[in-house]
Amino acid sequence: MRRRHRPRVRGWTAGALSAGLLALAAVTPEPAVTALAETAATADNTATVFYSTKTRNWSTTYLHYAPDGRSWTTVPGTRMEAACADWVKLTVDLGSATGLQATFNDGSGTWDNNSGRNYALGTGNITVKDGVIAHSDPCAGGGEPGDGNQATVYYSTRTLGWTTANLHYQPSGGTWTTVPGVGMQSACTGWWRKDVDLGTATSMKAAFNNGNGVWDNNGGADYTLPTGVTTVAENKVTPDADAPCADEAPDTQAPTAPTGVTARADGVSVVLTWEPSTDDTGVTGYQVTRTGGTRGEVVSDVGSTVFSDRGLEENTAYSYTVRAADAAGNVSAASPAATATTGTKPSTPATGTPLGADPRKDPIYFVLTARFNDGDPANNRGGSQHVKSGNAANDDPMFRGDFKGLVEKLDYIKGLGFSAVWITPVVLNRSDYDYHGYHGWDFYKVDPRLESAGASYQDLIDAAHAKGMKIYQDVVYNHSSRWGAKGLFTPTVYGVRDAQWSWYYDEKQAGFEYDGLTAEPKSGKSYYNGDLWSTAEPSGNTCLNWGVPTGGKSPEGYTLYNCQWPSPTSGMFPKALYHQCWIGNWEGEDSRSCWLHEDLADFNTENAQVQNYLIGAYDKYIDMGVDGFRVDTAVHIPRTTWNRRFLPAIQERVAQRHGTEAARNFFVFGEVAAFVNDKWNRGSVNHSAQFYTWKERKEYSADDAKAALEMYDYEQQQGTGNQPTSTNAFLDGNSYHAPDHSRASGMNVIDMRMHMNFGDASNAFHNGKDSDDSYNDATFNVVYVDSHDYGPNKSSERYTGGTDAWAENMSLMWTFRGIPTLYYGSEIEFQKGKKIDCGPSCPLATTGRAYYGAHLAGEVKASGFSQIESASGTVATTLQQPLVKHVQRLNQIRRAVPALQMGQYSTAGISGDMAFKRRYTSGGTDSFALVTVSGGATFTAIPNGTYRDAITGDTRTVTTGTLTVPAPGKANLRVYVLDGPGRIGVDGPYLK
């Protein structure tokens, strides 16, 4: 077999690939995938489409299709012919097309159109089974038994989640089959079988795949399989084995019918949720059947317990039923029907499109949306702590800023030079003090306290994109608040409504639903909580000692009762969905499996139902066109869960909705909080930021909870000295080299070490580069001085090092590796020295989360990045501040020099404190820059040529490989660019 056809997977062995098809889009294409493309390109330009009828129960099946660039067949399409058991097929002549759009139907008005998206199919043999596309001939004979030596191969996919399996093999002394090999037939639950005629050979090399580029090739060594009956299960080969299905009775038991099906309309979309079904061997998926409207009955295959049905007809009633299926193809009875009536189509497009492009090009401006700028006072809300916090006295409700206010000031942010805006979480929150967004309640709904007529979240995304600016959405996978998560599980607490507690427990009002904005008519509260409590013990209650007095008293002297407040140890929350303990050690494994604080109900993220709930929720925002996710509390979820479930799901959804290029540039950066000054957080690799940038390097249990513990123990034993390293951030001498991202997890991180050491720029620089070999690629690190949580050295105050120090920090951030990020207002040292957060114990106006809109009053218009066309009012004064001028020019320079955006760096052969060289080479671009911050430097062994300084325009001709730069002064820079453009921008208070 030619080397380029070997399906290498490196660390992606069978166990590590248990994420199954979800992992597909996250995998960097390997030679096996290339081979697939080559095979398709050289084959006859036809597509043979195989469709699984196992769970459909259709008497006839039609393929309705359109080759790319051509018209659709006449409805219902072309009837498919029987292929083999449970499969029908049709071969389509594509002419010059390279693929086709397809849907399937029974000829009588029932359709499978891939949930309204149609199926995008290529060429060659293609299977469509329960919504999943793969590549093979499921009925292929390829090497069927004859007169030669025989091999019968059984392959287990019990831990992989594959819906099909292919055997790619090479008889000893022979040639390999064409990728992806021959289709295996289902033998029994979790097992696939293939009989192979080896001719005169006595063994064969083999690898297995799911038809979509996910391979098990025994860790790159391939399997060696003899004649006779052989089983392969979780990398273990058993020759002369008993047939694994011989004594197993066929699985004929169907799953239980789904219960609790609810449908909620939102414009011309309907969100459907239900409780998971049970099965003796396990539920593999669900079928949602929709009736209503003029488009006939539609069947959609769903892998989770949440389904978003989009693009429906306006003002139309729809009915939905759900059935569960298992691996054997048994299908449950249909659930009771749930109905919903759509409204009118939104005036804006239902989905947006990410801007794409390398995220390292885009400096980030971080805003707390509710504290930035108030565009619509009608959606302001103070909540239950409005008076207690002191906000009422300042006429400063916690929910004050909104999307309208942000849209109105996008030109301010663009005028500063930023092309990405990181916003706090947008989902509907619920707690006593939830303006920040980290207390998610309904993860499928945008908080209406942020939206206005004509200023929805979609409007914000579209408005930013129209200005060439990205939106990075803060997301929380770790926990919810007040109490649980709508659509997953919410407990009922005990609350007597006597004179003591009537102020706290609102009277239950049937039909009223909390949305954070609407006031409940009787109580007048928008923070109504009557739906969360009961004086009668609820059906199915698991909370211990429900309603029994604890013997304690509140600070007011009121009697306290059991189950009056949620606790992970009370039995109030189901163990399958929520963790059951309080965190004890922030650097221990219990930080991944216990509650962080009070009412932050900690999701059991290793549970499939929880995973599906969160994946389904964040799919909505991916569909809207956001450009990336900032992941809150990322360290509190095991790396195995990120790598198996959430990160692949993000990549898959972006690729599905917006294409592979968009998926490649969708920026995910996690908060892996490590408040120490060493390379590895207190010696624990599992709690260090760089650890999360890597894929797993070992197989673990198929059970996610077990795998998390196995990974933790394994990596702790390996220790800091045996972790993977990378040269992706470093130059090779003066040369840029193509980075190797094959082992990247897909999560990038906030640079906690630089953040903690930004007491001064030099300290941050030296600490930062000391860690860079342990990240997969540190050029993607998000770098900031302070944030909504902490300042440097775990300070609880906004940075107060002085204007000169701020300018020096910025000069380093904008030229060194990583993506510079600025917390709102730092451009004018807003609230410097103020406590960042004190909860409701002090007014927000006195904290680092104060309202910024007063500094933005007036009109501002940007003509480009870092370019202000006009400004009037207070915002004009704001734009004249020294750090504003500084950051504007830094953004101009960084935007003009690719090496400062995406370049690798080196300090070799360079004298000087904060001095380095950077280079980026790609296609026709070759950008090389020499940088020194504040101090002088001498650069040796550099390429000869003409260098021009981006600050002063000074030109130097280097003929001996050496360039010496005198000290420019604190916070000033010299950026000598080989064959560069010279001076960029105009002199300011620091850059001159």
UniProtKB/TrEMBL annotation:
All copies of domain Fibronectin type-III, residue ranges: 254-347
Gene Ontology molecular-function annotations: hydrolase activity
Ranges for region Disordered: 239-263, 336-360
Annotated Gene3D superfamilies: Glycosidases (3.20.20.80), Immunoglobulins (2.60.40.10)
Cofactor requirements of the protein: Ca(2+)
Statement: the UniProt record of this protein carries the keyword Lipid metabolism: no
Keyword Hydrolase: yes
SMART domains membership: Aamy (SM00642), CBM_25 (SM01066), FN3 (SM00060)
Signal peptide location: 1-25
Keywords: Carbohydrate metabolism, Glycosidase, Hydrolase, Metal-binding, Polysaccharide degradation, Signal
SUPFAM superfamilies: (Trans)glycosidases, Fibronectin type III
Biased composition (Low complexity): 336-353
Protein name: Alpha-amylase family glycosyl hydrolase
Organism: Streptomyces nigra
